[in-house]
Amino acid sequence: MIIAAALCPAPPALARELTGADPVMPELRHACRDAVAALVQAEPDLVAVVGAAEQTRAWDESLGLDLSGYAPGLVPPAAARTPGLPLPLGLGTRLLDEAGYTGRRALWSVSEDEPPSRCAELGAQIASSAGKVALIAMADGSARRGLKAPGYLDDRSIPFDAEVTRAVRDGDLDALLAVDPGLARELMAAGRPSWQVLAGSLHGTQPVTEIGYCDDPFGVAYLVATLAVERSARMTSDD
Predict the structure, then answer these.
(1) What's the whole-number average pLDDT of the chain?
(2) Entry pTM
């Protein structure tokens, strides 16, 4: 059963190898660490990390973060021949390491082509994979929130991200499942599949949500939140 979840973005700037000593987006870094630390304090039997990638598949938790697509010079030639984890999963596992978590992990990438129903099914599968499951959903919002944004400005991005934030804040998970994949793709919102896996994992619960960060540096919407399932809600879900 699902007991807790954390929502974090996965920008490359969170990888120290790419920023060096420069504390890029320190508030975002701290919010992500705090969210995952709170999740670990719930003492789950298993933590699943979910993020968008080319394919929907499980990954070996022993693999490291693959930064070859962002800074090829940082990756030794031998290591480049053995691809590591996609960026969202690699950053999620690092957050777990920083939180001191040493328990069981499950890593899942989700293709942007997966329909909402399949994402929800994967979330439900993850939620039932252990007695007490926690989920980290690595998910960026739209990348078209300004003239200097990666996808330039699209006025639709503002209400789009505002509705996602409202849905997370209010625990309105059906609204996350209603996010249109086509619109998300047009707005370069890579987090859409992860949002919908999150919604599927928490189906039938009313999580208590705390927003730790909500901003759009560099024209990309980043949202950090913790979602806790109260014990009474978990017991009702089991009945």
Answers:
(1) 90
(2) 0.90
